[in-house]
Amino acid sequence: MAVRIYNTLTGKKGIFKPLRHGRIGMYVCGVTVYDRCHLGHARSAVAFDVIRRYLKYKKYRIKYVRNFTDMDDKIIQRANREGKPWTEIVKRYLAAYEEDMKRLGVEKPDREPKATDYIPDMIHLIRRLVKKGLAYSVNGDVYYQVEKFKSYGKLSKRKPDELLAGARVEVDKRKKNPLDFALWKAAKPGEPSWDSPWGPGRPGWHIECSAMSMKLLGESFDIHGGGMDLIFPHHENEIAQSEAATQKSFARYWVHNGFVNINQEKMSKSLGNFFTIQEIFEKSNWPDPVTAEVLRYFLVSTHYRSPIDFSNEALETAKAGLDKFYILFQKLDEVKITKGTRDAQLKKSMKVFASSFEKAMDDDFNTALAISEMQRLRSAVNTVLDKGLSKSLSASVLKLFRKYGSILGLFTLSTAQWNSIAGAGEFKTSSSNGRESDGGVPPSLSPADIERLIQERNEARQTKDWERADAVRKQLSDAGIILEDRPDGTTRWRR
């Protein structure tokens, strides 16, 4: 089945057709390296990491570029505030970004250009625009003349007067139009600068991505991505300056991920309700590999274009969802029989799952639906597992989960790793002598206490004293103990 992508430019989904058969050029706007990355950055990074992984799974050859803005007012302001060179600020937060992405399990792009390495390319592009009469210089600043690009606003679907009303436009009487934007900024005292035909200065923000993407992917390429907050003015301006310079279509598919809300309120530094990736890892009380999977599971459980609401409860729910998968994986690892009476039934479910998962991902990378298909297969496996499943098919279904999970960046740990570090608590088989132990059991109930209560419950069930049996189960549940009654008559427990 062909991949269908929602294109912000057209406002609808359509079949994805790359410029070159089997090859894809993809550019995603990265971060400005003046501070730690926040949850919004994590969402964008994971969303496009999954898109890239799936397109690679579909056998496309991808050149993925994600940039760094390493020269900006915010970088200069932070450097001045700390009394340090701007290069030191950039170096610090580049390293922090790499650390965050590694923790999240985000694969490195093929190229990660820094804006300051491409200033000659930016100057060349600006000169093309000036020569065409599309940009003008005023006292060392160069502005793009928006009214010369007749289709300005085609990405955000708003007319220039509507854009002006909704934009925070810097008042500058030197501009021919308030919407005109800076391509080159004249140097200010004490700020870093580079030589140019218009005097010393530095590039504007928007010209960076046009110059870098065209240098690395060509004047036309397939996918341009970023957060929805970049649609206007950043991406709108990229289109205007790029297409005016080349007279070619710039990016053919514009893909934007949705916003992150915190407890149902838009995440914002001004509101003080944002979380850095570092804070989430440090406050989760889970080791890094677990936190990464939990955070990714939380993020991909919602379609990338939809808003997502973050809370501690949401992370706990994601953790519980992953627990269910790893519990199943442990059961599959423990299967011993060589012939299974339900193998044929499960093989059919596995085939349906593979088709349904890919159908979901083909439909604009619908990870939310893909996760639900995984949950459906998990239920199907649990239904037949205790009724007769062979060791060979158990291994095959486990391999299937891990294969498709890897597209989402999930199920990267062994069951032993998950149980030992996630706090899920490996199931322990109840014994008569009470010697089984689990270091994670709350101190109010020792392993011996748990064994005694399980034995008491089993005796109540044998005498059909269901009220007492239920009361014991509730007592254990209240203490954080989960029971599993096995077909062979044994009862297993875990925290």
Distance between the termini: 43 Å
Look at the structure and give the CATH class of the largest domain: Alpha Beta
Number of spatially distinct domains: 3
- Give the percentage of residues in beta strands: 15-25%
- The largest beta-sheet arranges its strands as 4-3-9-10
Structural category is alpha/beta
Total count of helical runs of at least 4 residues: 16
The biggest sheet amounts to:
4 strands, parallel
Q: Please name the fourth-level CATH homologous superfamily of the largest domain.
A: HUPs
Q: Give me the count of strands.
A: 16
Low-confidence stretches: 432-443
User: Using only CA atoms, what is the Rg?
Assistant: 28 Å
CATH topology term of the largest domain: Rossmann fold
Portion of residues within helices = 40-55%
Q: Please name the CATH architecture of the largest domain.
A: 3-Layer(aba) Sandwich
Shape: elongated
Q: Calculate the mean pLDDT score and round it.
A: 90
